[in-house]
Structures are given as structure tokens and as C-alpha cells.
Amino acid sequence: MNQQIYDIHRQLVEDCKAGNRKAYNELYNSYAKAMYNICYRMMNDAEEARDMLQEGFVDAFRRLDSFRFESTFGAWLKKIVINKCINTLEKRKVS
pLDDT tens for residues 13-72? Predict the structure, then answer.
């Protein structure tokens, strides 16, 4: 049941996979505000939220080749961003 999900940003993702720098910028601008809001709610600090946002996008862009359109790009990115925040908070507890 490997159904591909329709994603309004599919072409942008495909363009990013092809190395189009403008597409990376457009994709970032499409999701940055929403992802920042998630980071801010989780980290409760604006500077840390910005750090998590940047690290989340870096991870997502590095792993773009593994994105298979089995969910929307936004859902996939959100999972990465949330996990980045959780891991950072967990490391803080251990230290």
C-alpha cells in the first residue's frame, strides 16, 4: 500500500532534489513560519526555536533524497523538526 500522497509542493521538492537553489528558498519560505511556531512552543525560547528551525531544515534538506511522497512534505518536515526539539530537550535532561 505504497500510495503516493498529492502534495502542493511536490514540484518544489522535485526541483530541490535536482539541485535548484531557488526551489530550496521557496520551500523554506513556505514552511518556516509554521515550523518556527512549533519550535517555539516546544522550546519556549525564541533563540532556541530559531536554532531548532535551522537545524530541522538542514536535516530535511540533507535527507531530501529519502523523501518518497508517502506523506506531504510539510508532515515529513514537521516530524523532523519535532524530533529535533525532543532530542535537544532530552539531552538537556541527561546533562
Answer: 999 999 999 999 999 999 999 999 999 999 999 999 999 999 999 999 999 999 999 999
Q: Quick one: which of 19, 14, 20, 3 has its CA closest to 73?
A: 14
Neighbours of 95 (CB within 10 A): 5
- 13 near 20, Cβ under 8 Å? no
Residue 81 CB-density burial (10 A; 0-12 exposed, 13-18 middle, 19+ buried):
buried
Cα 9 to Cα 48: distance, rounded to the nearest angstrom: 27
Q: What pLDDT, on the 0 to 100 scale, is given for residue 1? A: 46
C-alpha span between 18 and 93 (Å, rounded)? 40
